[in-house]
Amino acid sequence: MPELPEVEITKKTLQKHVVDQTIQDLQIKNRNLRYKIDNEFKNKIVKKKIVNISRRSKYLVFLLSDGNYFIIHLGMSGRLLIANKKQKKFLDTSFYASHPAIKKHNHVYFLFKKKILIYNDTRRFGFIKYYNSKEFLNCQHLINLGVEPLSSECNFAQLSQKIKKYNKSIKNVLMDQTCIAGLGNIYVNEALFLSKIHPERNSLRVDAPELKKLLQAIKDILKKSIRLGGSTIKDFHNSEGKIGSFQNYFKVYGRENEKCTRSRCGGMIKKITIGGRASFFCNICQQ
Ligand SMILES: [Zn+2]
User: Fold this and answer.
1) H helices of 100-183, where?
2) Which domains does the chain have, with CATH numbers?
3) What's the gap in Å between 194 CA and the centre of ligand 1?
4) Could you list which residues have their CB under 5 Å from ion ligand 1?
């Protein structure tokens, strides 16, 4: 599942390749994503220039030259590919994907003068939605989001106040998008390991030094992932995609029954389900 670092890398890659480019044409092979792509979408965006691409949580926000917007969410398995029209080379902006993109899951093609932006999605839980400038202000996907984890607003003072409003496990608080926006399951698991907090602990019982540590862990791991991810997708490839090896960097996520990597801990990584999502933690050092 694409998480915040991957969406951030995707944003940066798209900024390099399609910002200031005019959408010459749009080809839709399959409109039936999580939400059906509006029939008028093509008419609304063709001949418009993309003037900016930003990220809010895991949403990519495209600003068009007429002041209107469309957003892309990658859902569970969405990814964006950039193709060079002439050389038939592809750049896959996904770095978690364990298998190359398959052509039959290419659902939408945005055609530019020299490049093509392809929306590929095996499970079709992602979506593309258009908003005029007025509608955008009330966009239901963006309006209730919490703070961006890498922003300066995501700090100890704010978070310690905010966390008091929730009376549930720290794992569920961190997964709640109204608290911190865009933190996904992988990073929550990893950050709780780094700060030695058991995922089921009630958020009200996380003390100030622990919360400081947790906050730092969240920021550090997101930054590290963005750095590593960026270095894995720098180049265009000769095929549609490549094999990712990013999961090797995780310390608990997906490591059930392995030994804890913390020296002298001697614990074992356990897997439980919290809020319907897999949670991985060390049974000794996370309390
Ligand atoms: Zn341990």
Assistant:
1) 133-137, 156-163, 170-175
2) 4-137 (3.20.190.10), 156-282 (1.10.8.50)
3) 10
4) 260, 262, 265, 267, 282, 284-285
